[in-house]
Specification:
The structure holds 3 protein chains of 3 kinds. By secondary structure, chain A is of the alpha+beta class. Chain A has 9 helices and 18 strands. In chain A, helix 2 packs parallel to helix 4. Chain A starts with a strand and ends with a strand. By secondary structure, chain B is mainly alpha-helical. Chain B has one domain: MetI-like fold, CATH 1.10.3720.10. Chain B has 13 helices and 2 strands; from the N terminus they run H-E-E-H-H-H-H-H-H-H-H-H-H-H-H. In chain B, strands 1-2 form a two-stranded antiparallel ribbon. In chain B, a hairpin with a 6-residue loop joins strand 1 and strand 2. Chain C is mostly helical. Chain C has 2 domains: 64 residues; 206 residues, MetI-like (MetI-like fold). In chain C, 70% of the residues lie in helices and 0% in strands. In chain C, helix 1 crosses helix 13 and helix 3 packs across helix 7. The chains are: A alpha+beta, B mainly alpha, C mainly alpha. Chains in contact: A-C, B-C. The interface between B and C is large, with 102 and 107 residues.
Chain lengths: 349, 294, 282
């Protein structure tokens, strides 16, 4: 069990490419932190720096109360679950789990105890004598988890562990990982590019972009109050609609409550209502371009009058209008997200 | 040139791991090759007591020597003949075997084993087949009115060594042609037959062009084989004769160096051969690079 | 596609059977010749059916030989060939695995330089640099030794290149997982890399065993002592050693014995052989 502290971490590759620039983050003991961002944002690099698989070119990293910058991966008291599982194909499941412990010189009965315990926890007890080749994707994933568990490390590192599974299994494993992590209370760092995975797993979410932290917070904080345009666009599906202030002014719909400097207004698809609410709101008119019924909810693609950019609206249930119909939209003023394009940040009052 | 994304770090271990390979390479390759270069510019007096540095005179002499030029021509004829025979026959076999489904494995097994036969043994086998007194082939040729005698007739001798050399190389070419044929998508051939192309037309307009990378690669490999790996074929049978009709370059290097004792000339010949190998290898690598890129 | 071309298939089989017949024929003739009595060959063209002297002929070449005809017994030669083939195959694989491991899994000064030194040997067969290589071996007093027979031939880059290619395809995560599991370089090599390379090692072994067994020029130069002769080079002495017509029944028995081991290796390990052959040339 350990706290992980990153202090101004940098990673510059020998060619001069900067992958991580100045990341500071304090992870509490037992916390589940999810690193999320588009591909190439540096999230995997950061995780691998923590693991000791990439050298740290600047800053300090401590796990527990030790600075571990130059320690070998095996000496950092961490365990890692890899994207493609990285199981040793020539070893049985049992030996895959036991290999690291043997290298540490753990006594045989203790190895046996830990492997059996992890196997029971992950329900892989029946496969211990099989080779990875003979396992399904979900089973391999469990073995990879098991290999991390038996080490009883002070931190788990997950590198997109679910991305090779099909959609259904991914949801199931996501739930299991979260339950397991809560039960063991082990500090965890989890990398993903899937925002749904990120939102559901995280105690705190770290959004990375171009090697830097965009925003850190609980999933709800990030969803409800994105601090940058990048986070606003990245978190939430369908993505937040962005409407220029100039357009609202032309339409005479510009709310006076927004702070000065706002030139772009964000509106979540589920905040765009078809009937006017009692609360103060602004109103827009458009035309339905396409209807997308998706079961419990529907997406309506709307083209606003005098504006080419389509807007997405999310409504519960099935739509009652037809494509081509005119459609009025109402947005409560408190649901507006004011941004400034030049700074790329949220404008606060 | 790449390594892994992550590497081990050790001050001495990589050098220790490389040491055996590098040491053997230096002692038995780099040193002798540079010796050959040095000796190719020396000339020994008739008693082998003194040698003088003569710059490129050995090379000049070689290119003025009708025997050397003849050996070059012989080598060219031998290499081209062997390459065409070995490749033509194995392409035919590969195309035929590729049509088969159940019998493919059987035919492959029956065709791969000559690879295991040493060139020298291949030479002796065919030497025996063509033997003027007990061999079967001259006996049959006599039926056609041809009087076979590779001990006297240079052309006969050349045909004999070409057949022996090509025979051994068929398995190799066959395997690569078969792999090449199998990598051609069936859909292309189906598309061509929908377009109304007959079997022969499909082969010459679709299959053969798509096979050209393999063909080119095999051409280089076969030329290298014929020029350098066939020493045994010649040495165990014709010994370069009759009247130097099968005196190919590698055999001449050996003869002049070991039997003739003309070290300067032999070294110069070695240097020329090395240059040829290097050129052929570079061509081959170009091809590999291209294939990797596609 | 409609493959209902009965005649075409028949023709293909016919061509193949004829072709295979021609390819096999010289070996068939050799086997037949090795079963006849010496007198048979004096009566003109040789017969195409087996004779009755197989056992005498084979036991004669293996155990007695004919010293008058330049033919010492080949039992020892077969053994020498075997030793040479094994030493070359094992030696090449061992040093190549180590150097490929260094080149792929380490970054160090002069790495590229070493790579090219090794790689250049791929280009030059012994045949083109015979005289100076012979002199080196002679100066090292390695003439008429197993070491002289094998070590100079171990320095070829084919195997190094193959293993390098294979190591590059081993997933990065194997190494990373092993590092997290606390394995150092040699432990990783022994516990992970070697077991993963088993198939490639076996394929390489087949190719290199054949290469070693079939060496001709090199043993011819390096050995003058009969107790180091290998069987492939020994045949040449039987064919051209005597001025008279060779003793064909004995020569052919020797040919069969010399060709059989590598042929058996290929037939029993065809899959590995094909893999080894096609992958070294990639």
């Amino acid at each position: 069990m350990a706290r992980i502290v990153m202090d101004d971490l940098h990673k510059v590759y020998p060619g001069g490419v900067k992958a991580v620039t100045g990341i500071s983050l304090d992870i509490a003991d037992g916390e589940m932190i999810v690193l999320v961002g588009p591909s190439g944002c540096g999230k995997s690099t950061l995780l691998r720096m923590v693991a000791g698989l990439e050298t740290i070119t600047g800053g300090t990293l401590s796990i527990g109360d030790r600075v571990v910058n130059t320690l070998e991966p095996a000496d950092r008291d961490i365990a890692m679950v890899f994207q493609n599982y990285a199981l040793y194909p020539h070893m049985t499941v049992y030996n895959n789990l036991a290999y690291g412990l043997r290298n540490q010189g753990v006594a045989k009965p203790e190895i046996e105890r830990r492997v059996q315990e992890a196997a029971a926890m992950l329900q892989i007890g029946d496969y211990l004598q099989r080779k990875p080749r003979a396992l399904s994707g979900g089973q391999r994933q469990r073995v990879a988890m098991g290999r991390a568990l038996v080490r009883e490390p002070s931190a788990f590192l997950f590198d997109e562990p679910l991305s090779n599974l099909d959609a259904k299994l991914r949801v199931q494993m996501r739930v299991e990982i979260r339950q397991l992590q809560k039960r063991l209370g082990t500090t965890s760092l989890y990398v993903t590019h899937d925002q749904l995975e990120a939102l559901t797993l995280a105690d705190r979410l770290v959004v990375l972009n171009a090697g830097q932290i965009e925003q850190v917070g609980t999933p709800m904080e990030l969803y409800q109050r994105p601090e940058t345009l990048f986070v606003a666009g990245f978190i939430g599906s369908p993505a937040m609609n962005m409407i220029e202030m100039a357009y609202l002014r032309d339409r005479g719909a510009a709310p006076t409550t927004l702070p000065g400097g706002t030139d772009l207004v964000g509106m979540r698809p589920d905040d765009m209502l078809l009937t006017a609410p009692a609360a103060p709101h602004l109103s827009l008119n458009g035309r339905v371009v396409l209807l997308e019924p998706a079961g419990a909810e529907s997406h309506i693609y709307v083209s606003l009058d005098g504006n080419d950019q389509p807007i997405t609206v999310r409504i519960p249930g099935l739509p009652t209008m037809n494509e081509g119909d005119p459609i009025p939209l109402h947005v409560p003023l408190e649901a507006l997200h004011p941004f400034n394009t030049a700074s790329g940040r949220r404008v606060s009052a | 040139m790449q390594t892994k994304r992550m590497t081990f770090s050790s001050r001495w271990l990589p050098y220790a791991l490389l040491a055996p390979q590098v040491l053997i390479t230096l002692v038995f390759f780099v040193w002798p090759a540079s010796q050959a270069l040095w000796q190719s510019m020396l000339r020994e007096d008739p008693f082998g007591l003194r040698s003088t540095f003569v710059w490129f005179r050995n090379f000049e002499r070689l290119f003025a020597d009708p025997h050397y030029l003849a050996a070059m021509k012989t080598t060219a004829i031998f290499a081209v003949g062997t390459t065409f025979l070995a490749m033509g026959v194995s392409l035919l076999f590969a195309v035929m075997v590729n049509r088969m489904l159940r019998s493919r494995e059987w035919y492959t097994t029956l065709l791969v084993w000559p690879y295991a036969v040493a060139p020298a043994i291949a030479g002796v086998l065919w030497w025996f087949m063509f033997n003027t007194s007990v061999g079967i082939v001259p006996y049959m040729l006599q039926g056609f009115g041809y009087d076979w005698n590779h001990r006297l007739d240079g052309t006969d001798a050349m045909i004999l060594v070409v057949i022996a050399a090509a025979w051994k190389q068929i398995s190799y070419n066959f395997l690569f042609f078969l792999a090449g044929l199998q990598s051609i998508p069936q859909s292309l051939i189906e598309a061509a037959s929908i377009d109304g192309a007959g079997r022969m037309k499909r082969f010459w307009t679709i299959v053969f062009p798509l096979l050209s990378p393999t063909t080119f690669f095999l051409m280089v490999v076969n030329v290298v084989y014929a020029m350098f790996d066939t020493f045994g074929v010649i040495h165990a049978t014709t010994e370069g004769g009759p009247a130097r009709a099968t005196n190919i370059l590698v055999y001449k290097v050996f003869r002049d160096g070991f039997v003739g004792g003309n070290l300067g000339s032999s070294a110069a010949q070695s240097v020329i051969l090395m240059a040829i190998v290097i050129v052929l290898t570079v061509i081959q690598f170009r091809w590999i690079e291209r294939r990797v890129n596609y | 596609m409609v493959q209902n071309d009965r005649f075409g298939t028949f023709l293909a089989h016919l061509i193949l059977i004829l072709g295979v017949g021609i390819v096999v024929f010289p070996v068939y003739v050799a086997v037949i010749a090795s079963t006849h009595a010496p007198g048979t060959f004096l009566q003109g063209v040789m017969p195409l059916l087996p004779g009755s002297h197989a056992i005498e002929n084979y036991s004669e070449v293996i155990f007695q030989g004919r010293s008058t005809a330049g033919a010492p017994p080949i039992g020892l030669m077969l053994w020498n060939s075997f030793v040479m083939a094994m030493m070359i195959a094992v030696g090449k694989i061992a040093i190549s695995l180590l150097s490929a491991f260094a080149i792929v899994y380490f970054r160090f000064r002069f790495r590229i330089f070493f790579f090219w030194i090794i790689f250049i040997t791929l280009m030059l067969p012994v045949e083109v640099r015979i005289v100076p290589t012979f002199e080196v071996v002679a100066n090292l007093n390695l003439l008429n030794t197993y070491a002289g027979l094998t070590i100079p031939l171990i320095a070829s880059a084919t195997a190094t290149f193959l293993f390098r290619q294979f190591f590059m395809t081993v997933p990065e995560e194997m190494l990373e997982a092993a590092r997290v599991d606390g394995a150092g370089p040699m432990k990783f090599f022994k516990d992970i890399l070697l077991p993963l390379s088993v198939t490639n090692i076996a394929a390489m072994f087949v190719i290199m065993f054949i290469y070693g067994w079939n060496q001709y020029l090199w043993p011819l130069l390096i050995t003058s002592d009969e107790s180091y002769y290998t069987v492939v080079m020994g045949i040449q002495r039987m064919v051209t050693g005597a001025d008279s017509e060779p003793l064909w029944h004995l020569v052919m028995a020797t040919v069969v014995l010399a060709a059989l081991p590598p042929i058996l290796v290929i037939l029993f390990m065809q899959r590995l052989f094909v893999k080894g052959l096609t992958e070294t040339e990639k």
